[in-house]
Design a protein that fits this description.
The complex is a heterotrimer of chains A (144), B (98) and C (116).
Chain A lengths: L2 H27 L15 E7 L5 H5 L10 E8 L5 E4 L11 E4 L4 H32 L5
Antiparallel strand pairs in A: 1-2, 3-4
Helix pairs in contact in A: 1-3
Chain B lengths: L16 H4 L7 H29 L5 H34 L3
Chain C lengths: L2 H4 L1 H25 L9 E4 L1 H8 L8 E4 L12 H34 L4
Classes of the chains: A alpha+beta (144), B mainly alpha (98), C mainly alpha (116).
């Protein structure tokens, strides 16, 4: 059994899910931020992940050299084009001419759901890593 | 009540050296050994079949497979030890000076 | 040389060990790609190789197959199912390891005479 590869697969999944949780934390931290660096305003961030290239199933089936299961990878970080939430606050420094302040349209419920699924997937990756370690240690005991 | 004088009590049955120790007919031990070989062989076959079922995923009882394997292993060890003792006894007899 | 006395059970267990190791990698890959869009879960099949062994031929390697009956794409709800499969596969692998270890111990008891 290729233990290094099994560990690498689980480690890649863990990295992806940890990045997703980090993005959720950023979104929640900026839920009340009214201005952003690029001037457009704060938008919710989403992580786009995909299966790691080089693991095309046809290549695996053909037994191509170097083709192996390699887990997941981060493709990009995108922003959702959700409309901002307008709140009437005339005294706010960022209020527009009508007195409305544009708060980011970050839905805390959606962010929490994303975080929960990411944490559960992370725990599943940890379980896979521990199982691979247990199997490797038990294999070493062949022969007493 | 008068006690009877201690007298000669004849033997109830004849005691002889021959009947004191049950003697096995020559050939009983080899028959027992051959039977044991057959039983250990059956254990090994059963253990191998259990392994086949485990490998193909058909096994209903994991514990029976493991127990059959252990029983086969202990049976083989016992058989090897019996063989070793027999050989040692044989060599002891060979070394005896007439 | 020891293949002559090992028997069919030992060679089947070795094939099953290969399949269990590959299945662990397939499950780990499925878990790592729970949120990957367009990803098809993988599984392992080695029934045809088992049949080849039973007929006395040299078996091939266990194969990865796509589970096309499950919808591709991000499937975060499969985390529990994959973890159950992971636990079952780990137990199966360790049982096979124990089985082949005992089989080898039997052969070792015979080959070494266990001289004290």
């Amino acid at each position: 059994m290729d233990y290094l590869q099994a560990f690498a697969i689980s480690a890649s999944g863990m990295a992806v899910e940890k990045a997703r949780v980090d993005l959720t934390a950023v979104n929640l931290a900026n839920a009340q931020s009214t201005r952003s660096a690029d001037g457009i305003g704060v938008r919710p961030l989403r992580l786009v992940s995909a299966a790691r290239s080089g693991t095309d199933f046809p290549a695996l089936l053909a037994g191509a050299a170097g083709a192996s299961l390699q887990g997941a990878q981060i493709v990009s970080i995108t922003t959702l084009a959700t409309p901002p939430r307008l709140v009437f606050e005339p005294g706010h420094p960022d209020a527009d001419e009508n007195g409305f302040v544009a708060y980011p349209g970050i839905n805390p419920v959606a962010e929490m759901i994303n975080m929960l699924t990411a944490v559960r997937a992370y725990e599943a990756d940890v379980a896979a890593l521990n199982a691979a370690k247990a199997m490797a240690l038990r294999t070493l005991q062949i022969g007493g | 009540m008068a006690t009877e004088p201690v007298g000669f009590i004849p033997a109830q049955r004849e005691i002889s050296l021959d009947s004191a120790v049950p003697r096995e007919q020559p050939g009983d031990f080899s028959a027992w050994l051959a039977g044991s070989l057959g039983r250990v062989n059956q254990d090994l076959v059963r253990a191998d079949e259990g392994l086949q079922q485990l490998a193909s995923g058909e096994t209903q009882n994991l514990h029976q497979v493991m127990i059959a394997l252990e029983e086969a292993r202990i049976g083989v060890q016992l058989l090897v030890q019996v063989r070793n003792r027999l050989l040692d006894a044989y060599q002891d007899i060979l070394r005896m000076q007439v | 040389m020891i293949n002559a006395i090992e028997g069919l059970g030992a060679s089947m267990v070795k094939l099953a060990l290969d399949a269990a190791a590959l299945r662990h990698q397939a499950i780990a890959n499925n878990i790592a790609n729970l949120h990957s869009p367009g990803y098809v879960p993988l599984a392992v099949s080695f029934e045809s190789q088992l049949e080849a062994l039973r007929r006395g031929q040299a078996p091939g390697k266990p194969e990865l197959v796509e589970q096309l009956d499950r919808a591709p794409g991000p499937r975060p709800q499969d985390a529990d199912m994959e973890m159950v499969a992971l636990a079952e596969n780990t137990i199966h692998y360790q049982a096979l390891i124990k089985g082949i270890g005992t089989q080898l111990a039997i052969l070792s008891a015979v080959a070494s005479d266990q001289r004290r």
